[in-house]
Amino acid sequence: MKRVFFVDGARTPYLKARGEPGPFSASDLAVACGRALLARQPFAPSVLDEVIVGCVIPAPDEANIARIIALRLGCGKQVPAYSVQRNCASGMQAIASAAERIALGQAQLVLAGGTEAMSRAPIQWNMAMVGWLAGMMRAKTLPARLGALTRFRLRNLSPVYTLLLGLTDPIVKLNMGQTAEVLANRFGISREAQDAYALQSHQRLAAAFDAGALADEVELLYDSRGNSYHEDTGLRRDTSLEQLTRLKPVFDRKYGSVTSGNSSQVTDGAALLLLASEEAVREHGLPVLGEWRGHEWAGVDPSQMGLGPVHAVAKLLTRHRVAMRDLVQMELNEAFAAQVLACQAAWDSAEYTRDELKLDQPLGHMDPSALNPEGGAVACGHPVGSSGARIVLHILRALRRKGGGLGMATLCIGGGQGGALLVESMVSV
Questions:
Q1: Is pLDDT above 80 for 217?
Q2: Which of 180, 133, 143 shows the shortest CA–CA distance to 333?
Q3: Residue 157 within a domain
């Protein structure tokens, strides 16, 4: 196995969906951050061996979106590209696939990451309307067409919101917010604790932007109307605990505690990273941002999908003989405040460790001051195809600022999975 290095990376500001299609397609967003990333490299885009991009909801005209992005970035027709989909971890899967290619000696330089334009998720006809349209198309004579026309019903016009369908598990029939309610109930996580965590996420992200900690991570973005975006638009600098407590539960209106304020936001955004072999680093004189140490995937009950990181992190730490206390920082994607707090409780639980993780001793929770210290998806948003790449990029940048060490990026995955990726910063080549 060859060593795999992270050389550089970039992301767009994350743009909160505002009830209408956003100004950028998923490929637009990836090209915006990819262009800036590749422009500062000492090699041409055509030198890349491959481009791998995760995306959950590509537009109908963005089939194999990775190839579209590669060509728009000037990589040339000879650079192959493919798209991956592992739901919320699609961006992390793209990075993991790139790392495996390099580790096996099959590639030297790979551009990988994820992108998503959730605000542009299609609204479709329902099956009744599709069937009626098919009947109209089959009718060739005027009488047949008139007969088909009489079979039209107003209910045929009821739209199908694909985003809502995609955020609902088809096996257990629960949407993602309802799975967070399950975890809040299982671990006794109060509404007050969730709101306090959400407030902290906004405060930490605001402080990070104000301190310039994200300046080398977030690229300035312009739309066609001349508007510029320099920070995540879902960030609520003026929010307070009082405002959060006034919000009503969304997913269980009578008994629930999960609200729009303590959940991640529907968002558009992209994040890309450049991975390189040791040979490529030396050949091109590339800086090293960090080194890939490994990754793991885990499956859990889809009704408790938020616990996926508990299992993926446990597998990865055990395999590498690393303790939770050895991590300088962890980026745990904030799908919901309840989900993050549930993972912390599970890592601390002797019962959960014994019965679910099949380990002798609890891993122990991550130090809260080192868990998402610059905020997370509750504040910046969760464009599902991109988030896995964003947290990898951010952990690498954060470790560099802190002087190096081991870091973990992990997230839950709709459908009942978890992913985790271990990196080390300030390594020698």
A1: yes
A2: 180
A3: yes
Reported confidence tier of residue 428, pLDDT bands at 50, 70, 90: low
Confidence at residue 426, expressed as pLDDT on a 0 to 100 scale: 76
Residue 67 maps to a domain: no
d(CA 187, CA 208): 30
Give the pLDDT mean for 189-200: 98
- pLDDT in the model for residue 77: 98
Indicate whether 382 pLDDT > 80.
yes
Per the structure, the complete domain to which residue 138 belongs is given by: 125-162
Tens digit of pLDDT for each residue in 326-336?
A: 999 999 999 99
**pTM for this entry:** 0.95
In the chain, the number of structural domains is 1
- Active-site residues, by number, are 88, 382, 412
Residue 350 resides in a domain: no
Going by pLDDT thresholds of 50, 70 and 90, the confidence category of residue 429 is: low
In a domain? residue 187: no
